[in-house]
C-alpha cells in the first residue's frame, strides 16, 4: 500500500460517526472490494461485452446496430438522464463530513437543544461550501459570496444551519430574492458573465436598492476572494431564536470562526487561479483532509433576551445588519472539525439538500422577513431538484428514527410495514410525542396586527453599518475594496449604472466614492453625501481573526530546484516545514528526476523526483517559496524566463520567499526583487527583509560572481 493509502486508512479509523456508519449501509461498492467484480446490468445480469453494440454483420465487423440491444440501450438511457437541475443559486460547491461538539452546558440558560448543551455528544455534520453566482462548472476563486451550509445530524433530527461567509445579506425581505438573483446572474440577452458580478445588471440593481449597500461592501472586500474554504468565517445571517426550559425566548445569531484565521487571495492571484486551477478550493479542502490537517471552526452565539429586542438603533430582525460585538458579545460554546471527504461526489455533495426550516427542539425562528421567506423556499427547491422523497436520500436522512404517515411520491425508498397510514388510528401507530415530553413545540408568541405590505421603521436606514464596516477596515483592506469596486464598475458599460453607484458610495464614505469615481469615470463628489459617524470595531477586519500563534499548518510551500541544487538544504527545509505541518512541493525544470549538486546528470540513481514542472504549477498555487543554494542550479533558474516570472509574481503577491546562498544571489541579481536587503556573507546568518523575503547567507555570497547570473530576457 502506498504511503497515502496508509495515511488514509489511519485517518478513516478516526472519522467514523453515526452518519458515516449509516452511509456505509448504502456504499455497496467500497473501492477495495471492487477489484475483479463482475460487470452487470442494472437488473443484475452479468454481461460479457460492454464495448461493442450488437450489430448485424457479415463477418467483417461492420453493419447496422440493433435497437434490440437492451444492454446498450440501458447504458445510453442511464447516461442520458445523469443530470439533475443544478441549484438555482450556489450551484458550484464541495462538501465534507465532520463532527460538532460543545464544550459544556453553558447554553442551557438559553436553550434545551441537546446539540448545543450536551458536551458528551459528538454530532455528525456534513458541510457544503459554495459560490453563489456561477453555474456548476464555474471556477472556485471568483469574487463572490461563499455559502457555508451545515447539516447537523442530531439525536433529535437534522438541524440545517444554512449560512454564508458574510454576516449580512443584500436584501431585507425574501420577496426581493428573485430580483437580486436575476440581477447578479448572467444577463438574459446573452447569458454573460459567468461567475462574476461585474456587469451592468448587478450594479444597476444594487444602485437602486440601497439596502444592499452594506453587503456590497463585504462582497467587494477581501472576503469575496477567500484563500480557502478553511479560512473563512461562517454566519447563520438570519436571526433565529433559542428557548430554554423555563419557557424564555432569546434571539440568536450563529457564527463559525476558523482556527486558521481568515485569509484571502489577492485579486490578481484569484483571477489567474480561475484559469490555472478552477478547482483550487475543492482541491484545497481535499488536500487538507487527506493529509490529516483537519479544518476546524469555533462555534459562537450572540444572544439577545426577548425583552431587549428594541434596545438597538437598528432592527435586530434586519438581515442587512450585524450585531456589533461591543453591544452583543460573542460567546464561543463549541467547535466543528471536518475530517472526511466524500466517497462519491454526486450522491453526497450534489444530493445533499438543506432547509432553513429544519431546526430541532430548543431552536426556533424569528420574524426576520428574510428567514420567513427562506423557510418556504428551500423545501420547495429540493422538490424540484430531487423530488418529494429527497429526505430519504442517504446523505439527507437523519440518524435518529423517522416515522410518520407521509407516503408515496416518486422514488419512495422506505417500506413501512403498517396497515394504517393516518392518525389517529386503532393500532396506535405514529402517536405524537406527549406534551410533557420532548418533541418540537413552537414558542407561544403573541401575534396581533394588521395585514400590510410594509417594512419596519428601522429597516429604512441603509448606510450606518456600511460605513461602520468601511471604517473598520485596515488601510490595505480599504485599498483592496476601492480596487475591487473599480474593477467591477469598469466592466459596466452603461454610464447610468456607474454614475448611480458612485453617487451611492458617497453616502458611505467621501474618500471611497472619490477614489472609485475617479477610477471608473463616475460622478466625483465635491462633498460627503452624509457625515461619517466615525464608528468602527476591530471585529470586522479579517486581521482580527489571525490565529494567536502564527501557523504554517496546511500551507503549500514550493521549493524551486534545478540540476545542481543543494540536496542537504532541501532535506533540512522539508523536514523543518513538515514539523510545522506545511506541505512542500518540489518544482523543477521537468516532472521527473532532477540531479543534486555533486551527482552526474542522469546517473540513474541519485535523481530526486519533482512534483511539478514550473510551467505546470505557477506561484499562484502556493503560499510561500524557498530557493535553496547550488551554483549550477541558481544559474539555471536565472536562465529561465518562466522562473524569473514565477518568483517576481510570488513577490508581487506578497508571498513569503526564503533563499539560501546562491539562491539568494539569484534573487538579488536575476529576479531583482526591488527594495530588499539580502544576506551577503557567512556572518550575516539571516536577513529578514521587507515583504517577508528571508535570505540566509550560508556561504560567502561574495564568492559567487554575481554577473554570471543573467536574466533570460524572453519573459
Ligand atoms: Fe439561499 N437558497 N436563499 N441564502 N442559500 C438556496 O436552496 C433563498 C439566503 C444559501 O449548499 C437554494 O438548496 C431565498 C441567505 C446557501 O446546498 C434556494 C433567500 C443565505 C445555499 C435558496 C435566500 C443563503 C443556498 C438554492 C432569501 C445566507 C446553498 C438551492 C430570502 C444565510 C445550500 C437550494 C447548499 C441555497 C433560497 C437567502 C445561503 C433557492 C429565497 C440570507 C449556503 O432555495
What does it look like?
The chain contains 19 helices and 19 strands. It is α+β, with helices and mostly antiparallel strands and about 725 residues long. It has four domains: about 45-80, no CATH class; about 95-390, Catalase core domain (Catalase HpII,  Chain A, domain 1), CATH 2.40.180; about 470-535, Hemocyanin, N-terminal domain (Up-down Bundle), CATH 1.20.1370; about 555-710, Rossmann fold (3-Layer(aba) Sandwich). Helix 6 crosses helix 14 (about 495-505) and helix 7 (about 215-220) packs parallel to helix 12. It starts with a helix and ends in a 19-residue tail after the last strand. CIS-heme D hydroxychlorin gamma-spirolactone 17R, 18S (HDE) binds next to strand 2, strand 3, strand 4 and helix 11.
User: What structural category characterises the helix and strand content?
Assistant: alpha+beta
Computed Rg: 29 Å
CATH topology name of the largest domain: Catalase HpII,  Chain A, domain 1
- Number of domains as seen in the coordinates: 4
Helix content percent band:
25-40%
Mean pLDDT: 93
User: Which CATH top level class of the largest domain fits?
Assistant: Mainly Beta
Main pleated-sheet profile: 10 strands, antiparallel
Number of H/I helices:
19
The distinct ligands, each listed once, are: CIS-heme D hydroxychlorin gamma-spirolactone 17R, 18S
Give the N-to-C terminal Cα separation: 43 Å
CATH superfamily of the largest domain: Catalase core domain
Annotated CATH architecture of the largest domain: Beta Barrel
Unreliable residue stretches: 1-5, 700-715
The total strand number stands at: 19
Percentage of β-strand residues: 15-25%
Global shape: globular
GO cellular component, one term: cytosol
GO molecular function: catalase activity; heme binding; metal ion binding
EC number: 1.11.1.6
Organism: Cristinia sonorae
Amino acid at each position: 500500500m502506498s504511503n497515502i493509502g496508509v495515511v488514509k486508512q489511519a485517518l478513516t479509523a478516526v472519522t467514523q460517526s453515526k452518519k458515516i456508519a449509516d452511509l456505509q449501509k448504502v456504499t455497496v461498492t467500497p473501492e477495495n472490494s471492487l477489484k475483479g467484480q463482475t460487470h452487470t446490468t442494472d437488473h443484475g445480469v452479468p454481461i460479457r461485452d460492454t464495448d461493442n453494440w450488437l450489430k448485424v454483420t457479415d463477418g467483417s465487423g461492420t453493419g447496422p446496430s440493433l435497437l434490440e440491444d437492451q444492454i446498450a440501450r440501458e447504458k445510453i438511457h442511464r447516461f442520458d438522464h445523469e443530470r439533475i437541475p443544478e441549484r438555482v443559486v450556489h450551484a458550484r460547491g464541495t462538501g465534507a463530513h465532520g463532527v460538532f461538539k460543545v464544550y459544556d452546558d453553558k447554553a442551557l440558560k438559553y436553550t434545551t437543544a441537546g446539540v448545543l448543551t450536551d458536551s458528551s455528544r459528538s454530532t455528525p455534520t456534513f458541510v457544503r461550501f459554495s459560490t453563489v453566482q456561477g453555474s456548476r462548472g464555474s471556477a472556485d476563486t471568483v469574487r463572490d459570496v461563499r455559502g457555508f451550509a451545515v447539516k447537523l445530524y442530531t439525536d433529535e433530527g437534522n438541524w440545517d444551519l444554512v449560512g454564508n461567509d458574510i454576516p449580512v445579506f443584500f436584501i431585507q425581505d425574501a420577496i426581493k430574492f428573485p430580483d437580486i438573483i436575476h440581477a447578479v446572474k448572467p444577463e438574459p440577452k446573452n447569458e454573460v458573465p459567468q461567475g462574476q458580478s461585474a456587469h451592468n445588471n448587478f450594479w444597476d440593481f444594487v444602485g437602486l436598492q440601497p439596502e444592499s449597500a452594506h453587503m456590497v461592501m463585504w462582497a467587494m472586500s477581501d472576503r469575496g476572494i477567500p484563500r480557502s474554504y478553511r479560512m473563512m468565517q461562517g454566519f447563520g445571517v438570519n436571526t433565529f431564536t433559542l428557548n430554554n426550559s423555563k419557557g424564555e425566548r432569546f434571539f440568536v445569531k450563529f457564527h463559525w470562526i476558523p482556527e486558521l484565521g481568515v485569509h484571502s487571495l489577492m485579486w490578481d492571484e484569484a483571477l489567474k487561479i480561475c484559469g490555472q486551477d478552477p478547482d483550487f478550493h475543492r482541491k484545497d479542502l481535499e488536500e487538507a483532509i487527506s493529509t490529516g490537517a483537519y479544518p476546524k471552526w469555533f462555534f459562537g452565539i450572540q444572544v439577545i433576551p426577548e425583552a431587549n429586542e428594541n434596545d438597538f438603533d437598528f432592527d435586530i430582525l434586519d438581515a442587512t445588519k450585524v450585531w456589533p460585538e461591543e453591544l452583543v458579545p460573542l460567546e464561543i460554546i463549541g467547535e466543528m472539525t471536518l475530517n472526511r471527504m466524500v466517497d462519491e461526489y454526486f450522491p453526497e455533495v450534489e444530493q445533499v439538500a438543506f432547509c432553513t426550516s429544519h431546526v430541532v427542539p430548543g431552536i426556533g425562528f424569528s420574524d426576520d422577513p428574510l428567514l420567513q421567506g427562506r423557510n418556504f423556499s428551500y423545501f420547495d427547491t429540493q422538490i424540484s431538484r430531487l423530488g418529494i422523497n429527497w429526505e430519504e436520500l442517504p446523505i439527507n436522512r437523519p440518524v435518529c428514527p423517522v416515522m410518520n404517515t407521509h407516503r408515496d411520491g416518486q422514488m419512495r425508498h422506505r417500506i413501512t410495514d403498517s396497515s394504517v397510514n393516518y392518525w389517529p388510528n386503532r393500532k396506535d401507530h405514529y402517536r405524537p410525542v406527549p406534551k410533557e415530553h420532548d418533541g418540537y413545540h413552537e414558542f407561544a408568541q403573541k401575534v396581533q396586527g394588521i395585514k400590510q405590505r410594509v417594512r419596519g421603521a428601522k429597516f429604512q436606514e441603509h448606510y450606518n453599518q456600511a460605513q461602520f464596516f468601511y471604517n473598520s477596515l485596515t488601510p490595505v483592506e480599504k485599498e483592496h475594496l476601492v480596487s475591487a469596486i473599480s474593477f467591477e464598475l469598469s466592466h459596466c458599460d452603461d454610464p447610468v449604472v456607474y454614475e448611480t453607484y458612485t453617487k451611492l458610495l458617497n453616502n458611505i464614505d467621501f474618500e471611497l466614492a472619490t477614489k472609485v469615481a475617479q477610477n471608473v469615470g463616475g460622478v466625483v463628489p465635491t462633498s460627503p453625501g452624509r457625515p461619517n459617524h466615525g464608528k468602527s470595531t476591530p471585529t470586522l477586519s479579517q486581521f482580527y481573526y489571525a490565529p494567536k500563534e502564527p501557523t504554517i499548518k496546511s500551507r503549500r510551500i514550493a521549493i524551486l530546484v534545478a540540476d545542481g541544487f543543494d540536496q542537504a538544504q532541501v532535506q533540512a527545509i522539508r523536514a523543518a516545514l513538515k514539523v510545522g505541518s506545511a506541505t512542500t512541493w518540489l518544482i523543477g525544470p521537468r516532472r521527473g528526476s532532477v540531479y543534486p549538486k555533486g551527482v552526474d546528470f542522469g546517473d540513474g540513481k541519485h535523481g530526486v523526483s519533482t512534483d511539478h514542472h514550473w510551467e505546470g504549477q505557477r506561484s499562484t498555487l502556493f503560499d510561500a517559496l524557498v530557493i535553496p543554494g547550488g551554483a549550477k542550479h541558481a544559474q539555471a533558474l536565472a536562465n529561465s524566463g518562466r522562473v524569473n516570472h514565477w518568483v517576481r509574481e510570488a513577490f508581487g503577491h506578497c508571498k513569503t520567499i526564503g533563499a539560501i546562498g546562491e539562491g539568494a544571489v539569484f534573487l538579488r541579481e536575476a529576479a531583482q526583487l526591488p527594495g530588499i536587503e539580502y544576506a551577503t556573507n557567512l556572518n550575516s546568518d539571516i536577513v529578514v527583509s521587507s515583504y517577508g523575503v528571508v535570505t540566509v547567507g550560508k556561504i560567502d555570497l561574495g564568492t559567487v560572481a554575481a554577473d554570471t547570473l543573467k536574466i533570460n530576457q524572453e519573459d
